[in-house]
Design goal:
Number of domains: 2
CATH architecture of the largest domain: 3-Layer(aba) Sandwich
Radius of gyration: 19 Å
Distance between the termini: 50 Å
CATH class of the largest domain: Alpha Beta
Order of helices and strands: HEEEEHEHEHEEEHEHEHEHHEEEHH
Number of strands: 15
Largest sheet: 5 strands, mixed
Length: 266
């Protein structure tokens, strides 16, 4: 039953490349942005039952664009093509739960943070005497993560003790957890919270290992040379953070206690 429920979730977020979500007239006719998002991350961004883009980040970027006075087109792009498409000017902005990292800052710029999240670990309840990450290392556990994500990079710090098992999608790792193909799964706390709360079987057979393991700030990515665009995005986002709009979206999408809304610096 757990496999069937999770498989339905995965099917609901199958990526439809270049799905357009054009907006009418949010601002100047000369300001038409192409914004990329990977809609495979419930509840942040996904395709709903009507095949339309939905989720926390979809609502957020619409609010940011409206507040800044931009027309925009939202396109659904696989994760692996997001950064390259931004650099080669296929897109003007990318919003897709992207952690602001110093390494990434060498290639692109970021808005002010709109969400603080981090990695969380789900482990099988039948794996006994595991109270923290060090216990997983000591037992030489097999732990899964979506490849080329911050969760994957986090696990690599412990690869001498942990066997890392990579997956193309986070949901695949959860299915393998249900099948006892791994001992635990590391993922973004928002995504882990969603899967955990939406699947009774998962709640019965898995548990969180402590709380959030890291603190990561998510930002909207853009090209380093687009200074004026960055300023407008930052001003718009700061207003939405201050007036409570972003917090309301957090509550609407039930992002969980491990995800916090940051306060913009004055």
């Amino acid at each position: 039953m757990l496999k069937k429920n999770i498989f339905k979730i995965i099917l609901s977020v199958v990526c439809v490349f270049s799905l357009s979500c054009g907006q009418g007239s949010l601002g100047s006719k000369n300001s038409n942005l192409v914004i990329a998002i990977d809609a495979t991350f419930i509840p942040m961004s996904f395709l709903n039952d009507e095949g339309k883009l939905d989720g926390f980040e979809v609502d957020l970027i619409r609010a940011v664009a409206k507040n800044a006075g931009f027309n925009f087109e939202l396109v659904n792009v696989e994760w692996g093509g997001l950064f390259g498409g931004l650099i080669t000017k296929k897109f003007d902005l990318v919003i897709s739960s992207i952690t602001i990292l110093e390494e990434r800052k060498k290639r692109m710029a970021f808005s002010i943070p709109y969400l603080q999240s981090g990695v969380a670990i789900l482990v099988r309840k039948d794996v006994k005497n595991i109270d923290d990450l060090e216990d997983l290392v000591e037992m030489k556990a097999t732990v899964g993560a979506q490849i080329n994500t911050t969760s994957h990079h986090f696990l690599q710090k412990y690869q001498e003790g942990i066997t890392i098992k990579t997956y193309e999608k986070y949901g695949h790792a959860i299915i393998d957890l249900a099948n006892k193909g791994n001992d635990g799964v590391v993922g973004d706390s928002v995504q882990a919270n969603y899967y955990f709360n939406e699947n009774k079987e998962l709640t019965q057979n898995a548990r969180f290992l402590g709380s959030r393991m890291t603190s990561e700030n998510y930002g909207i990515a853009l090209r380093k040379e687009d200074l004026e665009l960055k300023q407008k995005i930052d001003v718009s986002l700061a207003e939405l953070l201050k007036n409570g709009v972003v917090q309301k979206l957090h509550d609407k999408w039930n992002l969980g206690e491990f995800a916090a809304i940051p306060q913009p610096k004055n």
